[in-house]
Write a structure and sequence with these properties.
Strands 2, 5, 6, 7, 8, 9 and 10 form a seven-stranded mixed β-sheet that branches. A three-stranded antiparallel β-sheet has the order 1-4-3, with no helix packed on it. Helix 4 crosses helix 9. The chain contains nine helices and ten strands. It has about 300 residues and is of the alpha+beta class. The two termini are about 20 Å apart.
């Protein structure tokens, strides 16, 4: 695996600046200055009949009782970001950066009952991680930050401190953080605990029994991809001969920053995502290639 490029003038702690860009991408961040200006929407579904069988087999054969479809979706996303590195970019202050790390933010319940409080975790991944590594990292993050229903993680502590402050102090603090973030001066601690500074944000609204939503990507932070996973359902599907079969699926919806790469790259990436979930065994071993983020 290639080493992280040496930091140059103009790079950030969390990403290296991409200087040799296609002309249109060099201009787009100045036309669409915010993520809310540049977000595009994508809808798809994943067939899960065979995937559920795989999950049950993994639970039994590898002693992974908590293993679920959610772990499979996270692993497939993570591997997609490794093999399609342009997805792991972000735009800040009119410039495009390649992120140095690979992480996902996710919201989980502290308690299983209906009114259980939620918490946000942000496990960090390595490019060589397999489905077993992802399962372990997610579970470790949940055990550390969530299982103690009376405890608070660092994100909760920071939010609660701000919640006790007058509104003008909160506004001043947030404006200061945005000012620093725009210039790459953000403190490592803030970057570490912020769920808005991550490769992708993943939410499982299917766990509360609803269809996936189109969740906006935040203007604050650096997240360029937001995926929502919906509930399990059955739909009729026609093959090329017109024969109708009923398939069990999960629908996904994504909101993407169109400034980081073109539509063709996005389309090929999500075709890869579908292929990975269709043959999940490939996620049991590390990838054999680690493409660099270039514009060529």
């Amino acid at each position: 695996m290639s080493q992280t490029p040496k930091r140059r003038f103009g790079d950030r702690k969390d990403g290296r600046r991409l200087r040799h860009t296609q002309s249109v991408f060099a201009v787009m961040p100045h036309i669409m200055k915010k993520r809310s200006d540049s977000q595009v929407f994508f809808d798809d579904y994943i067939e899960i009949d065979e995937l559920e069988q795989y999950v049950r087999r993994m639970r039994k054969e590898h002693d992974m009782p908590a293993f679920s479809l959610y772990h499979m979706f996270v692993t497939a996303c993570m591997r997609m970001f490794v093999l399609r590195p342009r997805l792991n970019r972000f735009v800040m202050n009119g410039k495009i950066y390649a992120r140095n790390t690979l992480s996902t933010s996710m919201t989980v319940k502290r308690e299983l009952h209906q009114n259980g409080l939620e918490a946000t975790i942000k496990p960090q991944f390595e490019k060589t991680d397999t489905v077993f590594d992802v399962y372990r990292r997610i579970n470790e993050a949940m055990e550390k930050e969530v299982k103690d229903a009376e405890g608070e993680n660092a994100t909760d502590v920071a939010a609660n401190i701000l919640n006790r402050c007058p509104a003008w102090i909160v506004r001043a603090f947030v404006n200061f953080i945005i000012f620093c973030d725009n210039r790459g001066w953000l403190n490592d601690f803030i970057n570490k605990i912020s769920p808005f500074h991550t490769s992708f944000y993943l939410t499982d609204v299917g766990s509360i029994g609803i269809e996936p939503i189109y969740h906006h990507i935040y203007d604050f932070g650096t997240t360029s991809v937001f995926m929502a996973i919906g509930k399990k359902q059955r739909i009729p599907v026609a093959d090329l001969d017109g024969n109708i079969t009923v398939k069990k699926i999960i629908r996904i919806r994504l909101v993407l920053d169109e400034r980081i790469c073109d539509g063709h790259y996005y389309a090929e990436s999500f075709r890869m995502f579908r292929r990975l979930l269709k043959k999940p065994e490939v996620l049991e071993v590390p990838p054999t290639e680690f493409p660099e983020d270039t514009w060529i």
